[in-house]
Amino acid sequence: MALIDLMQYNTTVLVVLAMALGLMVGSFLNVVIYRVPLMLQREWRQQCCEFLELDEKALKDSGAAPQHKVFNLVKPDSHCPHCNAPVRVWQNIPVLSYVLLRGRCANCKTPISPRYPIIELVSALLSGLVASHFGASWLCLAMLVLTWSLIALTMIDVDHQLLPDNITLPLLWLGLLVNTLLPDAGVGPANAVLGAIIGYLALWSVYWAFKLLTGKEGMGYGDFKLLAALGAWMGWKVLLLIVILSSLVGAIVGIIMLLFLGRDRNIPIPFGPYLAGAGFITLIWGDTLMSLYLSRLVG
After folding, report:
1. What is the dihedral of CA 42, 173, 171, 241, to 10 degrees?
2. Closest CA to 91 of 81, 82, 83, 102
3. How far apart are CA 158 and CA 218, in angstroms?
4. Can you give the three-state secondary structure of 232-262, one letter per residue?
5. pLDDT of 165-184, one tens digit each?
6. Using CA atoms, how far apart are residues 196 and 224, in angstroms rounded to an integer?
7. 131 within some domain
8. What pTM value is reported for the model?
């Protein structure tokens, strides 16, 4: 109780603890980002083998799935993908271990991608921001879960152009549950349900309109589900703001990649990261942005 009281009356302590928790969760998010797509590929290939009545050896020899009998978020234990040396506890301390190991495997000295500590740091910083905004409450803990989920979805979509149902759908249901059980969320069950429905149908309508006009698919179904999840968390009233912010940032980034990075315009750009980023911005600064917009509109 003393620690809880301290967090309630001392924002600095709350933010520091939230950032420390964010570092640890960020380390786990690296596992989620790497393993969830491989788990799905493994499952899909296994289903294809069963449907085509192929021997399971075809699955193992395909090389597309990890060569482990058990492969999930827990097993196998953390190891170097190059030399298979196990990662010891002291080698798995968020950010610090990367610095001490100078960004290399302790066994084979293969360079470790800097994205691992970057994701840990981003998770810590965003967790501190959420804690500072919502204070010591159950709502803060719920919003931390939302934030961590958005980080994982962002990186998975960047890597694979995939927004996994096993993250987006539980996130949607959790948003509805939070707004049912926590009155201080300020959204309410009805607005949350409308947010989920309108969020899904909004992008679904855009998808089909674009496909009918061009014959091409402008986005994936995962984008519909992610916006539905954001609507379930924050209500239907902020959906337009999220779509505008995500489209604006997506357009700017897309133009930069085409003009300055020489990206092929025929290569699709994932929309999920922009939705996730816009959702987080709306979560923290949505009221301020809406008030600013309305004041300029009235003025």
Report:
1. 130
2. 102
3. 16
4. HHHCHHHHHHHHHHHHHHHHHHHHHHHHCCC
5. 999 999 999 999 999 999 88
6. 10
7. no
8. 0.91
